[in-house]
Amino acid sequence: MYQPSHFEENRPEVLHALLRSHPLATLVTLTAQGLEANHIPLYLRCKGVDRPTLVGHVARANPLWRDTDLATPVLAIFQGPQHYISPGWYASKAEHGKVVPTWNYAVVHAKGLLRVRDDAVWIRQQMQELTTQQEAPIPAPWAVDDAPRDYTDRMIAAVVGIEIPIDSLVGKWKVSQNQPAANQVTVQQGLQATGTEAGAAMATLVRESGG
């Protein structure tokens, strides 16, 4: 990933927070047929492991767990907030007009070797962890054990677990740090004026990153 120094984000707590808030990863793997990409929710497990590990599951019918080259690192891409940035939002437009559109975004790339876990107990724990995380904001959260055990046993038998101990974790926060302070302020205003959740989320990142 192209990474200008002013867009680097290396703080583990910030990177981990994005993985938890946007757990749907694009998982890129190498197979005998070439590169493959799958979209899989992954849970960041930090307790009980020697290093942070991504865990998830795929349908047993998905060839990912059989075809991936397990000796080659995989790449999990987590997409955080993103938004188009209009040049009309820059204060400097009125000064000299030398402005162009761009796109702001926050992403995290995680690399490591993929391991296959065809273990019903392991898979149930992974499902419980991810479900608990995602259900937390819901007033009456659902739990895996709310469903009949024979039903969830059948569901678990239809999937295969995967885990990726993280060897490399890289973040890129392209959120207007390369703009003058006045432009950062007016970009925030423009984003807020869209009235969308995406606009508000990006305005927050611009502000937190120096604007």
Q: Keywords, please?
A:
four-stranded antiparallel beta sheet; alpha+beta; 211 residues
Number of helices: 7
The 3D shape can be described as elongated
Estimated helix fraction = 25-40%
Which spans of ≥5 residues are poorly predicted at pLDDT below 50? none
Strand content: 25-35%
Please describe the biggest sheet, giving its number of strands, its sense, and whether it closes into a barrel: 6 strands, antiparallel
CATH classification, class level: Mainly Beta
What is the H level of CATH, i.e. the homologous superfamily?
Electron Transport, Fmn-binding Protein, Chain A
Tell me what the structure shows.
The strands form 2 sheets. This protein has a 6-stranded antiparallel beta sheet. A 4-stranded antiparallel beta sheet has the order 4-5-9-8. The chain is α+β, with helices and mostly antiparallel strands and 211 residues long. The protein is 32% helix and 32% strand. It has one domain (5-84, 103-178): Pnp Oxidase, Chain A, CATH 2.30.110.10. Helix 6 (181-193) runs antiparallel to helix 7 (197-208). The chain is elongated, with a radius of gyration of 20 Å. It contains 7 helices and 10 strands. A hairpin with a 7-residue loop joins strand 4 (43-45) and strand 5 (53-59). The relative contact order is 0.20.
